[in-house]
Design a protein that fits this description.
By secondary structure, the chain is mainly α. It is built from 1 helix and no strands.
Length: 49
């Protein structure tokens, strides 16, 4: 029973470790898109003046 609990903990830890890179890549992509959008907005505002 104790070994089962340890295996489950290791499995959960491995699962979170596998999910971490996907999340960071997605957040980086969102930040990049938001950054480009902000840059485009600034350029558009400067062109309007």
């Amino acid at each position: 029973m104790f070994s089962k609990k340890v295996e489950h903990c290791l499995f959960v830890e491995e699962e979170t470790y596998n999910w971490a890179p996907d999340y960071s890549a997605t957040s980086k992509r969102i930040l990049l898109i938001m950054g480009l959008f902000m840059l485009g907005a600034v350029v558009a505002l400067t062109q309007m003046r």
